[in-house]
Design a protein that fits this description.
Length: about 325
């Protein structure tokens, strides 16, 4: 079995370099930061080559011209655009809003972002309809919500057939129940959408606190040719903490990376973190260091030996194999 060779390219969500807000510190952690300056902060992190940008652009001085200038100045590029169809304006839903005018407004926003995405040469558009879902029993007809959600994705995918659309799923937050809540449900929805240019983005943390195995979700999406990208972070499984990579679940992160490298994944590893109390540059550097070490370990594990113990479903042999390589690398500072 050939030895997997993993990409050493990195990207990040621009939000991790801006002002972060939660429901307690509503005035934000740190001063307001415009997106152009956030791009410049991201450029301080060696290894980051591209960014996932929110749309509309946010913060002081965040005009299209200013963001373009910051990208040109730093040599970074726009890897993806994420239309903000999850804000207060869409608190009752974006694609699933009970008001047809608001549903149309969400579609218009995604289409405007798609026009800009084509202009900027993004790899894909990211759809995270975080407000599409429900909070209470009997609040809505689940079948109707499903139809509206599928229709919304279908309409933007049909309007821009040359663009890829990656649907990011999450179990909950801001709704208690989100429509795109798991890898399986998202794949079923994409099947109903019926467009070849729609796929899945797996956020490691969303998968973890959704009680999935992130590696198993990767394999499920890969088996259907629907994995467009991944976001890297960590949490304690009870919430979307967006901690630095590998800070809690090293082995699950390693398994996630092994599945991707085995499949020949050659895209940038994208960081999606919320360093509320940490320096964002140092948090990004810590994640890249951890990712680089874990990718080295993923490449060092004997692929044939791993395949053999997995074929035998020998849990202890698999753990011994991984821990031998893991601790050897740490011991020798590799």
């Amino acid at each position: 079995m050939s030895k997997p060779v993993a990409s050493r390219r990195f990207s990040a969500g621009i939000w991790m370099f801006g002002q972060l807000v939660d429901r307690f510190a509503t005035d934000g952690y740190g001063p307001p930061v415009g997106m152009p300056d956030a791009v410049r902060v991201a450029a301080k992190v060696a290894g980051i080559e591209s960014l996932d940008l929110n749309y509309p652009f946010w913060g002081p001085g965040a005009s299209l011209a200013a963001v373009r200038a910051a990208l040109d100045e730093t040599g970074l590029r726009a890897q993806a655009l994420t239309p903000e169809i999850y804000t207060r304006e869409f608190s009752k839903g974006a694609f699933t809003n009970p008001d047809p005018k608001v549903r149309q407004k969400a579609l218009d926003l995604v289409m405007a972002a798609s026009e800009l995405g084509m202009e900027l040469g993004v790899d894909y558009m990211k759809l995270w309809p975080g407000q599409d879902g429900f909070d209470y029993p009997l609040q809505a007809d689940p079948r109707r919500l499903w139809e509206l959600s599928v229709d919304g994705v279908r309409r933007v995918a049909e309007a821009y057939p040359t663009l890829s659309f990656a649907v990011e799923y999450k179990p909950k937050e801001p709704r208690t129940h989100m429509l795109f809540s798991s890898a399986a449900r998202t794949l079923l929805a994409i099947e109903d959408v019926g467009r070849d240019n729609v796929g899945v983005l797996i956020d490691f943390g969303h998968s973890m606190y959704g009680a999935e195995s992130p590696a198993a979700s990767v394999e499920l999406c890969l088996s259907r040719g629907k994995l467009i990208d991944v976001d890297l972070n960590d949490n304690f499984r009870s919430w979307d903490d967006d901690l630095t990579v590998g800070s809690v679940h090293i082995v699950e992160t390693l398994e996630f990376l092994i599945s991707l490298t085995r499949a020949g994944w050659d895209r940038p590893w994208k960081l999606d973190q919320f360093p509320f109390r940490e320096d964002p540059v140092e948090a990004a550097r810590a994640s890249i260091t951890m990712l680089s070490r874990l990718l080295d370990i993923a490449e060092s594990i004997d692929a044939t030996q791993l395949a053999n113990v997995q074929e035998a479903q020998d849990a202890l042999a698999a753990q011994a194999l991984v821990f031998d390589v893991l601790f050897s690398h740490w011991k020798h500072g590799k």
